[in-house]
Every structure is written in C-alpha cells, then in structure tokens.
Write a structure and sequence with these properties.
With 737 residues, this protein is α+β, with helices and mostly antiparallel strands. Helices cover 33% and strands 20% of the residues. It has ten helices and 38 strands. The strands form eleven sheets. A nine-stranded mixed beta sheet has the order 23-24-19-20-21-18-17-28-29, covered by helices on one side. Strands 8-9-10-7-6-15-16 form a seven-stranded mixed beta sheet. A three-stranded antiparallel beta sheet has the order 2-34-33. Strand 11 and strand 12 form a beta hairpin. Helix 2 runs antiparallel to helix 9. The longest helix has 57 residues. The mean pLDDT is 87. Pfam families: DUF1522, Flagellin_C, Flagellin_N. It is found in: Secreted; Bacterial flagellum. Flagellin is the subunit protein which polymerizes to form the filaments of bacterial flagella. Keywords: Bacterial flagellum, Secreted.
C-alpha cells in the first residue's frame, strides 16, 4: 500500500477525525466511570493521592465495627450496673425493715444495783443520818453558892407556907360557916382562881353524888372535877371546904374519886389551916401558890391585897439548899408549861404521879412520866426529876421508844441513837434521834427553865440537827471498758460539780459514748444496760468488752445475758432469707451483663482501636461486681440482723456498694462518651477522606456530556470533510480516465 498516496486534505481530515475519536473515547470513558482520573496515566499525582485517601478511609471504616461493638459492651455493663443498683436498694430496704422491726431481744444485757432513796435527779441515794447532840446552858441547883444539877435533881422546890391576914369580926376557924363571914362573905357566883384552876361559890347545898357528871366527886360541901377545879356550896359550906378547894387547886392535896365520892389525901406541902384567925396556906413542891380574885371576896379569908378591885395572894417555894437536891428558883418549871417536840407535846403537871395510868397510857418504869405511846407525855412536877424531863424528850424525838401495854411503858434506847443526859457541867445533852432533826418550842417557862432558850433566855426554840452522811454511793467511782468499739467510761458519783455525776441525765451523757444506757425505777433500782443497737451483746464479755470496774463495781450484779425474743428473731430470720435471695440475684446479674463475650462487670478488659496505625487506642478495665466485689456477702440467721448494730453494719456495706456502683457508672458513662465521640469522629473523617479522594478523581459529568456532544458533532463534521476531500480526488481521477 506504500504506493497509495493521500492528498494533504484527506490526510488532514483523517488526522482530525482520529483525534476527535480519541477525545470522544476518553470522554465516554469518563462518563461511564464517573471519574476523570482512572489510571496513573490520567493524572499520576491525583491518582496515587486518591488511592492513599481511599485506602485510609477503608481502614478506618473497618475499625468502626469494633468501635460499635465496644459501645454495646459498655452499654451492657451500664445496664448491669443499673440493675445492680436497684438490687442493692432492695437489700437496703430489707435492712431498714430489720431496724424498724420489734427488737430482737426481750431484755438486754445489764448490771443492776439498788440505792435506797435514789431518784433520777439524785443517784446518790438517801443520805444516812446519825444521832445528833446539842447542849443547853448549864442548870444550877438551889445551894446558896449554886452548884450544878444532875439527872436526879428534883424539878420542884421546897414547899413554903404563908399566912394570910387576920379575919376580923367574930374571928375565923376551919369550921366557920361561910355565911358567918360578915359583909364580905362569898355569894353565889363569886369565883377565885388558884394556880389557873377555878373555885366557884354556889348557893344551896352539895348535890347528891349520883347526880354528878362522870369524873366529878363530892366531899362535904365541895364538888371537884378531879382536875383542880371545884365548886363550894354556900348553904352549909365552911372555911374548911374553901381551904380544901385551894389545896386541890395548888396541888397540896390530891383527890381520888370513886362512885361520886371524893377522897382527899396529902400530895406535897402542908394542908391549909387556920391559926389565930388567919389562914395558913402552903405551896406544893411543884408550883408556887397564886390566888387571884375580887378583893372583897378575898378579904373574907384574909387573902386580899387591897380594899377593892382585883387582888392577889402569893406564896413562893424555896430552893433546896442541899447540893444537887433541887433546881434553883430560876430553873423551876411552872405547872402547865409545855414543850412541843416535832409535833409531840410534853405537859408539866403540878401533881404527884398517879398510882395507875388512865386506859391507853403507860407509866414509864419508876419515873414520874406517863406517856400515851405516841410520843406525848406528862411529867409530874411533884417528885419529877431532870431525868424524867429528858426521858419525855427522848420519847417525843424517838431517841427512846416507850410502847404502852397494860398501863406500863417499856423504855428502850433506839438503835443508833443515845439517851439524852445531864453533863458534868449541868448542861442537858439532848439527842436528836434518827427520825428527824429535833426542834423544841414551848409555852410557859419550860424552855427557859431548862436552859433551852439560849444565853439571853430569849430564844423561842431549841434545835438539834442529826449528823448527815453522804448518800449511798457518793464518792464512789464507776468505770466500763470500751464496749463494742465505744469509748471507755470512768465517772465519779457526786454532787454534779467538778465533773462528778449526780443525775441520771449526767450518767447517760457519760455512758452514751460507750454504747450503754442507764435507767432507774421508783424503788431506786439503777440498771445499766447495753444500748438498743447492741442488744445482742453481753456487758463484760470477751467479744464485746465493757468490763465494769471502780469502787462501786461491787455494788452491782453480775452482767445478765441478753434474752432473745423468739418471734422477733423469726421475723428477722425471714428478712435474712430475703436478703440472701437478693445477693444471689446480684451475682447472676453481674454474670449476665456481657456482650459479644466481653463482660466489663466480670473483670474483662475492653480495648478499642481508633485509627489505621493502631496507635490511637482506649483500654477500659473491667471490674468484678459480684457480691464479693461489692463488699457484700450472704447473711446467717441467728447471727445477722439480730440487733441494730449488726444491721447497721450490713447497711454500711450496702451504702458502700451503692457508692461503688455510682462511681463505676460514672466511669462507664465517661468512657462511653469518649467512644461515641471517637465513633462520630471516625465517620466524619471517612467522609472527609472520601470527599478528598473524589475531588481528585471524579469527573464533572455535565462537562463531560457537553464534551461528548461537541466531539460527536466534530466527528460528524470531520467525516463529512473527509468524504468531501475524497470526492474531490475521485473527480480528478474521472477526468484522467
């Protein structure tokens, strides 16, 4: 074919057609592949750069599956923690039920002691008292140069007589009729007072004894009530009747009344008489004589102290001059004076002691004292002694007892007391007795006469205080070693000052830090027991501690063991069973919290790779969240939930487990956030890489379509041009033919 020669025009058209065909082929290739760089020949730089970007994008895309699995593993673990948290909360609820249920013990371990008189305000107990003593001022006897008295010194003095004035007119004798005493003779209604007793003059004659009131008696024309008061009847009455009435009132004579008959007999002093037309009157040994009345009446008997108005006639005893025989005039007690001692009364009576005591009363041995058995006594001044007064004082105070039986009182010193006595200096040493502090007050002159009115003689009372000693456990110490982890206690019982313990509140404040509590009942029984939280513990045991000590320890009983309440313990045992069921669920829930064979709650480790080089990784260390890993364990009936302290230990473990779960949930949440962030980052990075690659290799289809259309047109034109060129050559050839 080398012999064929193409014209230049044909050649050019053919060359142009070939070029257009090549361009059209390239354009169609780009349109079909969508890429403008399909091989290194198209654009080596873009081709290899895009290949690198695609390769990295593919590698990262392959890692996304692993990241997605990691997220599911973390979420599985987080779901497991949520379930475990609910289970732990359920276990807490059961433990709280145990706390709120009836105490597991009907009585707790305790030590007890009984302190007489102890109260919640004062644990020391009743103060004990010993007999107190106090002294009067010294009493003197009746010597010219005064000496001192002793127990046998008589209370009375030496009876004295005094002669009245001479009665004028016809004179006077014991038998003189009262109606013959002249113008000043007594008339019905007249009265005179003798030593506080009353003599009344009445008209007529003495009544028959059968008509007299009970206790009254008649003798001649005199009717007496047996108590020193008399009535003299004027119709047949004589001076002797009046003198008898004066002697009965003054205590010179005594009377015995039987069936209405009054029998008079000497008592002390000298019976009244008439000498030389004048009355001679005597005091008794027990009191001075004091007669008062209207002077007109008194003048009829020569006893007036003036012509008219009120008058008096007095005679005074004298003191015995013998050493110690009788008291001085200043120390003589007036008849009818009294002493009041702690609500009991001692009465001083100007009379000799009766032969027999009235019913219900008793004579105290051979003494001149009669008592009613209730602490009230009468001391008889005629023959009475200082010792008799002290005996009556002791009976009133309780220093001595004198129970009455068949008219006699048996005297005995009360245990712990001592009898009052006269000291060598004449002072009265008064015992308080044990029943209470002694306070003596009085009427008349009894208080001053006995030296009980103070140095000035003006005091209105005399007191004798018992000697008080501290309460039953004052000053004693009480200690407890540490009980169930508490703080050891050592207290001193006292008045509440300087750190001492006085009240129950003080003691409980000290014991509370050692898991102990105290209580006291109305009998003074003090009980120190384990607190409610430690109801199952025994005070002083090796396991629990709390050994008692101190000087008061010997007063307390041996610690009692706690006594279980069967019903309450059965309830608590049921709660233990429920708790253990939850513990088992915690175990299985932790085992089931796995995904694709990885369990972050079972101790597995999750490692995630985030880039194609393997240098960007995250390792999540798993935990073991079975019961043991959470610090929990199954409970045992009869050992756990038996008291509040034991239950609180379980609650503490559950609270710790809750905190652990919350902490791990937080950690998983943080890791999940990291992984999800990296997952999003990887997806975005893949998109960036793929976009970059596409930007380097992808064709613009609009542009390529337009190019294809233009090239097709060009090709068509080229074909036409080639055809025209070829036709031109054919025409020349035809011409040559």
């Amino acid at each position: 074919m080398s012999g064929i020669v193409l014209s230049n025009a044909v050649r050019q058209n053919l060359s142009s057609l070939q070029a257009t065909a090549d361009l059209l082929a390239t354009t169609q290739s780009r349109l079909s592949s969508g890429k403008k760089v399909n091989s290194a020949l198209d654009n080596p730089t873009n081709f290899f750069t895009a290949a690198s970007l695609d390769s990295r994008s593919s590698d990262i895309n392959n890692l996304l599956d692993g990241i997605g699995n990691g997220i599911q593993i973390i979420q599985a673990a987080n779901t497991g923690i949520s379930s475990l948290t609910k289970l732990v909360d359920s276990a807490k609820s059961i433990a709280n039920q145990a706390l709120q249920s009836v105490a597991g013990y009907s009585s707790k371990s305790s030590v007890t002691t009984t302190i007489a008189g102890a109260t919640a305000d004062d644990l020391r107990g009743t103060s004990t008292y010993s007999n107190g003593l106090a002294q009067s001022i010294g009493l003197q006897d009746g010597q010219g140069t005064p000496g001192v008295v002793d127990g046998d010194t008589l209370l009375g003095g030496v009876a004295a007589t005094k002669t009245g004035g001479t009665v004028g007119g016809s004179g006077i004798t014991a038998g003189t009729a009262l109606s013959a005493l002249g113008a000043n003779k007594p008339v019905a209604g007249d009265t005179m007072t003798v030593n506080g007793r009353t003599i009344t003059f009445a008209s007529g004659g003495a009544p028959d004894k059968a008509t007299l009131p009970t206790g009254s008696g008649v003798e001649g024309q005199l009717v007496t009530d047996g108590k020193g008061n008399s009535t003299v009847f004027l119709d047949s009455g004589t001076v002797q009747d009046v003198m008898n009435a004066i002697d009965l009132a003054s205590g010179v004579q005594k009377v015995t009344i039987t069936g209405g008959d009054a029998t008079l007999a000497p008592s002390s002093g000298t019976a009244a008489a008439v000498t030389s037309n004048a009355l001679v009157l005597s005091t008794s040994t027990g009191s001075d004589l004091s007669i008062s009345g209207n002077n007109t009446l008194l003048s009829a008997f020569g006893l007036n102290s003036g012509a008219t108005g009120a008058g008096t006639f007095k005679a005074e005893r004298t003191a015995s001059p013998a050493a110690g025989d009788g008291v001085s005039r200043a120390n003589m007690i007036q008849a009818d004076s009294t002493l009041s001692i702690n609500g009991k009364t001692i009465t001083f009576k100007d009379a000799a002691i009766p032969a027999n005591a009235d019913y219900g009363f008793g004579k105290v041995g051979s003494q001149n004292v009669i008592t009613d058995g209730n602490g009230n006594s009468t001391v008889y001044l005629q023959g009475g002694t200082i010792k008799d007064v002290l005996t009556a004082v002791d009976i009133a105070s309780g220093a001595q007892t004198a129970p009455v039986s068949n008219g006699a009182a048996s005297l005995a010193v009360t245990a712990g007391s001592e009898a009052s006595k006269v000291l060598s200096g004449g002072q009265l040493q008064i015992s308080s007795g044990l029943a209470g502090d002694l306070k003596i007050s009085g009427t008349g002159n009894a208080l001053s006469a006995l030296g009980l009115a103070g140095n000035q003689g003006t005091a209105t009372s005399f007191s004798v205080a018992r000697t008080a000693t501290a309460g039953g456990i004052t000053g004693k110490t009480l200690s407890f070693e540490a009980f169930n982890g508490g703080t050891a206690v050592n207290v001193t019982i006292g008045d509440g000052t300087n750190g001492t313990v006085k009240s129950l509140a003080d003691l409980n404040s000290a014991l509370s830090v050692n898991n102990l509590a105290a209580s006291i009942d109305t009998t003074g029984k003090l009980t120190i027991s384990a607190s409610n939280d430690y109801a199952s513990s025994t005070i002083g045991s090796t396991e629990s501690g709390g050994k008692i000590g101190g000087t008061a320890a010997s007063l307390f009983s041996t610690a009692s063991a706690p006594v279980a309440d069967v019903n309450a313990q059965n309830t608590r045992a049921n709660l233990v069973t429920q708790y253990n069921n939850i513990i088992q669920q915690i175990k299985t829930t932790a085992q089931d919290a796995s995904f694709n064979g990885v369990n972050l709650l079972g101790g597995d480790t999750l490692k995630l790779v985030f880039n194609e080089t393997g240098k960007s990784t995250l390792s999540i260390q798993g935990v073991t969240f079975d019961p043991a890993g959470l610090g929990l364990s199954s409970l045992k009936s009869g050992k756990d939930f038996i008291d509040n302290a034991n239950t609180n230990k379980v609650l503490s473990s559950l609270n710790t487990a809750s905190s652990t779960l919350r902490s791990q949930a937080s950690a998983l949440g943080s890791n999940l956030s990291i992984v999800q962030t990296r997952q999003d980052f990887s997806k975005n990075l893949i998109n960036v890489l793929q976009t970059g690659s596409s930007n380097l290799t992808l064709a613009d289809t609009n542009e390529e379509a337009a190019n294809s259309q233009a090239l097709s047109t060009r090709q068509s034109i080229a074909v036409s041009a080639l055809s025209l060129a070829n036709s031109s050559q054919q025409s020349v050839l035809q011409l040559l033919r």
